[in-house]
Amino acid sequence: MSDPSTPRILVIGAGAIGAFYGAALQAAGAEVSVVCRSEVDAVRENGFSIESKRLGDRVFRPAQVLRAAGDYSGGPPDYALVCVKVVEGTDRAALLRDAVGPQTAIVLIENGVEIEDEIAAAFPQNELISALAFVQVSRIAPGKVRHFAFGDLSFGNYPGGLTARAKQLGALFESAGIKCALTEDVVTARWQKCLWNAVFNPISVMGGVLDTGHILGTAEGEALVRRTMEEVCSVAAATGHPLDRALIGQFIEGTRKAPAYKTSMALDYENGRPMETEVILGNAVRAGRREKVAIPSLEALYALMKMVEMRCMHDAGSRPAPG
Amino acid sequence: MSDPSTPRILVIGAGAIGAFYGAALQAAGAEVSVVCRSEVDAVRENGFSIESKRLGDRVFRPAQVLRAAGDYSGGPPDYALVCVKVVEGTDRAALLRDAVGPQTAIVLIENGVEIEDEIAAAFPQNELISALAFVQVSRIAPGKVRHFAFGDLSFGNYPGGLTARAKQLGALFESAGIKCALTEDVVTARWQKCLWNAVFNPISVMGGVLDTGHILGTAEGEALVRRTMEEVCSVAAATGHPLDRALIGQFIEGTRKAPAYKTSMALDYENGRPMETEVILGNAVRAGRREKVAIPSLEALYALMKMVEMRCMHDAGSRPAPG
Description:
The structure is a homodimer. Chain A is α/β, with parallel strands linked by helices.
């Protein structure tokens, strides 16, 4: 029997991100279960092994390892952590529906902007916490996850504010070594992350994968990055979430100073995985269109990404599916 | 001894295009010599073999096969055909200087817009003919060229007009089965070709080579093509060479109806060859900047191409040079 004061947490979509943060919450004393469709057998047998220089290697054995949220037993969880990648064809509300009770706080740990409304509309009575992960973590084999760098979270309630339960979740993460920037305005925090993501991610997929060094390596390249970031700032401002435009220079200089690296979208592209084009870029483009902001560079990148996705789809159709 | 009425023609840069048109002019009765630095020995021994379903297979044995234009003997040629690809680092004037006499007509058979001024400035006294080739032809081995499709030329004098010598050249080509559209306004003809080239070529290099089917396969893709073509039309108009905007729809529909294919720039990219970014796209961008035309889509494509070229340069530096 678990202590009734122990928070019960269900991680939906325990890929690399879900396993990493689930392990942290378990280390902090929570009772953590996972839904992970494809790797259930491996995880039931061995748990997740998580390699992390920063947090130490560990094995994370979830309380329950489930194929579907509806199999969760013991009553609804206190927190449902949604860690599925938001790509076309994923119905996140359907994944959640069978496990969420009236007291469950839904926590989205996902990329992108304007990703909350769909969940808020499907679960209007539930507390909704929106979280951004600044982490480099990869699944390297079934049940095996490697943590490369970072790990911080930024979150708050959607559409705004910061409840006691959000703070409780922050305290749990902090006690496991995960720094949390709690914010009353998580939507602005999402736009701020989008400022980098919606620009560097799609560009990195062009011309056979460009790393940050290639992207900032010419005057024209840097100017395109800057112009596109200006457009993102204009869209964010038009939606009521203005960003400090000084961030543009800071992001560019910060990226230039770091060793050249490939974005998550470039890695997805190289590995034939679905790319988060729609939430990272498409949602920003749709917001720009809706708010009637001029976004020609964003539109160009978005159109190019749609072409690239079409080619990837054709390629996937003409080769065996990944195992 | 050659007949003094036989036109003497020197082809500078006898790659696939130069060999193909040189062979046609020889078949028409001209005395044709070539400068082809890397393949001199093979061509001296065996000539060029040219496979062409449309014009028939033939062996083209040039009158003189030279390493440099300065080695050309018998006095300056009547026509110097410049068929070198216009890529960064090519000094076309220097390649020509040692062979051009006061009566030599310089004929540029090259891609791009605004490529003539450099040659007009270097040879202000010479007649300058500017020609566009609509041809699909490739070098498949040293001295071996395959003609896949088309072959027509469009040309006229630069900056405008159509002289007797341009017409004489047209008659020679025509008698060898090469259709020539002679024009008093070749600059507008260049912008018209640029309307397709400056759009489909750079896009085709994005995301690991896109064919025309991928490019026009989504609504967003077609919209980007259309917007970028609108920008090219605006630049052409600003330079005094307005295009009929109905061409945009015609080009898109024509491309959609043809079987999906890869552009010349995509093929250059795949084969690690230099791409004609600067003459096909960069010159259009510079013209747009000079004329203060809004060209955000062209600018985005140009910046992406510069990034891709930077990556190709790095890649080329880290692998053995092609043999």
